[in-house]
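re: that chain from earlier
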Amino acid sequence: MPVSADDISERYLKKTIAEINELGHEIAQAAGPERVPVLGSGHPLADILLLKHRPQTAEVHEGVAFFGRSGQAVLKSIQRLHVDPMAIYGTNCLKFEDVADEDAHRWLARELHVVQPKIVVVMGQDARTCLNAVRFPLATEIEDRLGEIQRFTPTIDALQTPDVDESLDEQRSKRAFWEAFKALGPWWSELPPY
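^ sequence. v structure.
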C-alpha cells in the first residue's frame, strides 16, 4: 500500500519533534541542577529561525526562548508583516549561564539541522558572531549588513537585525530594529508554497 504525502509529513514531523526533545534533554543534562536551560520554542519545522545571543531574565525564569518582551515585540512585528506565526522557531545561542562556546555552537548546529529553516533572522552582533563560529556545512559568513537578505547556505538565507532585547526601550532603537526586520515581509511573500 503506497504511503500518502500526509503520512510522510506526519512521520517527518514526529521525527523532528523527537530530535528537538532529545536535544533539549541533552542541554538540560549539561546545565545540571544549578542552572535553568532556555530551550528553543516554536514550530520544529519552521521556515524562519529567530536567533538571539543570550536569554533574558523572563526567558530564564520560564526556560523558553523568546518568552517575555522580546517575544511580544517579535510577534507584533511578524503580524504587521503578515507572516504566519506557525512558521517561526526561536532560540538563543547560549542555552544557559556559563555554557562553553563549543557546546553552544554544537547545539545551534544541531538545531539548524533539525529545523532546516529557509531563513535565519540573526538578532545582533553577538548572535552573528556565534552563528559564523558554528561553521555550518557549506555556509558563508554572514556580514554586518542590517536589513539585507544574505545567502547563508545554498538552502538557507539570513537577515541581520539589531539585538531585539537592546531595541525595546528607546524609540530610535525600536525603529532601527523594525527597519531591518521588515525585510522579512517581502522575503516571506515571495516564498513559494509547498
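The first strand starts at residue 41 and ends at 42.
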